[in-house]
């Protein structure tokens, strides 16, 4: 069983992502024709910096969805961890390093709680993460009183605004490193094999001796960790902790995953596809901003994109099932 899973699980980067690559190319051409500001070096760096936050979150969401679950707490954890980390430094006077560790551990704790509840009590992840989303949002608002907290600490600010060799923004560097690490975990380790196996056929995975509960807890914990890190970097970039900043981040992350070919039914997906999906979302937002389209219209566009991607995904799976039956 495990050998069969091992052979079938590895995604093919080019063939599996050819559709999203074509979409990305066409999108770049359209936006570059609509505005001459798009292909400037400054704007390209800006796009990469913007998509980095969504990519951190979407990496964890990819693992969650492949596993057959969903995590709606990610946006709230981004806001909560960013707000509390800044508050720990400004209001409580904690050392920056200790505050950062505390903020990240808070996100890890939320992810761990989600994983334990989902795996132990068999509660649908949609329901429990929606409940925990409200808890995280509530903590951020109660702690901050609904107000943003300004921070001027140079070290903390440099985390999200600094550059490597005065060329590569640090958030982009983090993104590249995280993509490499999560890709390795998903494709080159037994952990990745188990994630695909559980999402593809939970009962078969159980019968083959895969520790389903342990894997679920680890994946949800990783999602919490990545969301907390995203909140830390975002707060640094914004020079403040804001309790409302995470609104909609869960939708952007899900959109990136689905656009990149991750099946909402579980068992299928890739980090490369998710990264391309995040790029599509980022370029759409950037292009609409450059053209001067209202942010309200951008919400409509993103909603349509998610709905279309889910419909296409369901039809693709239906087509594959019919093809197998005909054979």
UniProtKB/TrEMBL annotation:
It is a multi-pass membrane protein. It comes from the Bacteria. CDD domains: TM_PBP1_transp_AraH_like (cd06579). It is found in: Cell membrane. The keyword Membrane applies. GO terms for molecular function: transmembrane transporter activity. InterPro entries: ABC_transp_permease. GO terms for cellular component: plasma membrane. The chain crosses the membrane at residues 12-35, 47-67, 74-92, 98-118, 125-143, 163-187, 215-235. Keywords: Cell inner membrane, Cell membrane, Membrane, Transmembrane, Transmembrane helix, Transport. This is Branched-chain amino acid ABC transporter, permease protein. The lineage of its organism: Bacteria, Bacillati, Bacillota, Clostridia, Lachnospirales.
């Amino acid at each position: 069983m495990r050998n069969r899973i091992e052979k079938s699980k590895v995604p093919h980067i080019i063939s599996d992502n050819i559709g999203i690559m074509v979409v990305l190319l066409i999108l770049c051409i359209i936006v570059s024709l609509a505005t001459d500001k798009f292909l400037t070096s400054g704007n390209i760096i800006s796009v990469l910096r913007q998509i980095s936050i969504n990519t951190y979150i979407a990496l964890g969401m990819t693992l969650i969805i492949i596993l057959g679950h969903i995590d709606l707490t990610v946006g709230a954890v981004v806001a909560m961890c960013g707000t509390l980390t800044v508050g720990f430094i400004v209001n409580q006077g904690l050392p920056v390093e200790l505050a950062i560790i505390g903020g990240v551990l808070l996100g890890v704790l939320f992810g761990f709680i989600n994983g334990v509840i989902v795996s132990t009590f068999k509660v649908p992840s949609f329901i429990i993460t929606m409940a925990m989303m409200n808890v995280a949002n509530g903590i951020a608002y109660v702690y901050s009183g609904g107000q943003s907290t300004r921070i001027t600490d140079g070290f903390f600010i440099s985390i999200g605004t600094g550059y490597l060799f005065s060329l590569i923004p640090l958030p982009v560097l983090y993104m590249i490193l995280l993509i490499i690490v999560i890709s390795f975990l998903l494709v080159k380790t037994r952990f990745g094999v188990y994630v695909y196996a559980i999402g593809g056929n939970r009962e078969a995975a159980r019968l083959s001796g895969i520790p389903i509960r342990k894997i679920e807890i680890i994946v949800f914990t990783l999602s919490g960790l990545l969301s907390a890190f995203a909140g830390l970097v975002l707060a640094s970039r914004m020079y403040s902790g804001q309790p409302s900043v995470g609104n909609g981040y869960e939708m952007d992350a899900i959109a990136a995953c689905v656009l990149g070919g991750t099946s909402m039914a579980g068992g299928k997906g890739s980090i490369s596809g998710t990264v391309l999906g995040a790029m599509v979302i980022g370029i759409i937002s950037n292009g609409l901003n450059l053209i001067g389209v209202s942010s309200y219209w951008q919400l409509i566009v993103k909603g349509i994109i998610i709905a279309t991607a889910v419909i296409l995904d369901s039809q693709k799976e239906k087509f594959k099932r019919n093809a197998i039956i005909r054979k």
